[in-house]
Amino acid sequence: PREEQKMKPIHTILMAGLLAAGLAPAAQAQVQSFSTPPQGSVWNTMASVISGEARTSAGMRLVVQPYGGNAQMMQAVNDALAEFSLNDVNDVITAVSGTGDYTTAMPDLRIVARINPFPVGLYVREDSGMTAVSDLVGRSVPSGWDAFPIARSHISAILAAGGLDWDDVEQVPVPELIRGSDDMASGRVDSAFFAVGGPKVAEVDASVGGVRFLTVDDNDETLARIREVRPAFYFSEIAPAPVRVGVPEPMMFVTWDNVLVAGAHVPDEQVQALLAVLFDNRDAIGAAYPPLLALNLETAFREYPGVEYHPGAVAFFDERGVTMTSDQ
What we know:
- By secondary structure, this protein is α/β, with parallel strands linked by helices.
- Helix content is about 40%, strand content about 20%.
- The strands form 2 sheets. Strands 1, 2, 3, 4, 7, 8, 9 and 10 form an 8-stranded mixed sheet that branches.
- The radius of gyration is 22 Å and the shape is globular.
C-alpha cells in the first residue's frame, strides 16, 4: 500500500506532462498494429499501403501483423492485441454479435470508416455457355472453404441473387480462393468465386481462352434474400474496364463494403490521425494501390446495422462536416 501511495503522485505528474506535451504526438509515437490475413491477401496489401503512408506523411509507427484468417485478426483487435484491421463489414457485424462462424461475441470492435465497395461474383469459362447464376442448376459450385470461411456467406448470397440455393447445385469442396480458381481452370469445378478485378481472374482468363462473370437478378425480392444471408449486402453496377476481366457489359453484382475497424481501446487521437492520413493523402494511397482510389470522404461515414462507430471517427467526420448516410 505504501508503494502504491508513492506511485500515485508520480503517475499524476506523468499524466500532466503528457497533457502538456499534447496527446496527438504521444499517440503517434506509440507502435500500433494492423491485423490482417496472410501476406498476399487484398486486406494485407491495403493495410501495408495505408501503414506505409501513415509512417511517411504522419510519422505514425504503424506495422502490419498477419494472422491466419478473419476470426484471428478480429480477435486481436477485440482483445487489444492490435489497434486496427480491415474487413468485410458483414463479417464485423457477425463477429460483434458472436453468430455465424463466431462462437464468441466480440463487443469491442468499432467501425472507423467505409473504405471501398467490393463487388464479388461467380465466374465461369466463356465456352461453358453459361451467362447467369440461374444457369448453374445441376452444375458444380465451390464449397467448403475451410481456409476462407467468409466465402460461404458470399456464395450463398450470389446463389440467392440468381434464385438458387446450395441444394440446386453440386457442391465441390475447395479450401480457399486461389485453389478454387485453379480447380475451375482445370475443369474440376464449373464455377469459381472471386472479387471483380482480381488478378487471379485475369490469369485464369488467359489460361483458358476467356472467362465471364455470371449475372444476377437485382430486384427487391433478391435484395431481401441476400440480406437474409448478411444484412449489409447490396447490389452495385459495374462497368467494363481493362482490369475488370470477365465483365463484358455493365453488370449488377452482389457487393459488400470494406471497412476500417478499430478496437474500443484505441484512443480517439489515434483514430483521427489515421483517418486524416486516409483522406488527406488519398491520391498517394491510390497511386500505390488503385482500388483505394475509391476512398471518398463524403461516403465514408455509412450506417450499418449491429455495429458502432468509434467515437474518434464520429468526431473526425463531424469536424469535416460529413453526416452519416444510410443508403446503399
